[in-house]
Design a protein that fits this description.
167 residues, elongated, 4 helices, four-stranded antiparallel sheet, alpha+beta
């Protein structure tokens, strides 16, 4: 597997876990793009780099200040994780994250339901959430190989599925 593809698969697996487990998922701005932090900034301020809106505008589209002007915080060197480019790419992290958020809204069982862990084969975390007479099941492959936790479900490395069983 291509290491970059593996990183994307792991990133998406973690967010799928976060959005399907109990609690309220929280994102910091820029996370939906995979935006990196500028760790050259001292202290906790490094966790808040300016938002990257474009790769072609000065200051990554964050500010209309003249090129070369000093911003309150410097941008990371790599501004490839930006809103403009990702909006145009249907497979981007931003577009995937928008679909995940929409899917979570369609599955109130994850936020309101009672969680039960399910038995599954392999390095798999499977759980179900029951609420108001309906059920959603989430299956996550935590391993770096294909797996089949049952006869009908097959998962890629770091793959996941959200399923709504029909009664």
């Amino acid at each position: 597997m291509d290491p970059a593809a593996g990183d994307q698969a792991r990133i998406r697996l973690v967010y799928s876990l976060m959005f399907s487990l109990p609690g309220t998922p929280t994102l910091f701005y820029g996370e939906e793009l995979g935006m990196r932090e500028n760790l050259d900034i001292p202290g906790r301020r490094s966790a808040r780099s300016p938002m990257q809106w474009s790769s072609s505008e000065p200051h990554a589209g964050f500010s209309t200040a003249p090129e070369g002007a000093r911003l309150c915080r410097p941008l990371p060197e790599d501004t490839s994780a930006n809103v403009t480019d990702q909006r145009r790419d249907p497979s981007s992290l931003l577009n995937w994250m928008e679909r995940l958020i929409r899917q979570r809204k369609e599955c109130p069982e994850f936020g309101w339901g009672e969680l039960s862990l399910l038995h599954a084969k392999g390095p798999v975390l499977a759980h179900r959430c029951d609420w108001d007479g309906s059920t959603v099941v989430a299956v996550h492959n935590l391993g770096d190989n294909d797996c089949a936790p049952d006869e009908e479900i097959k998962l890629d490395p770091y793959g996941y599925r959200w399923l709504r069983p029909r009664h």
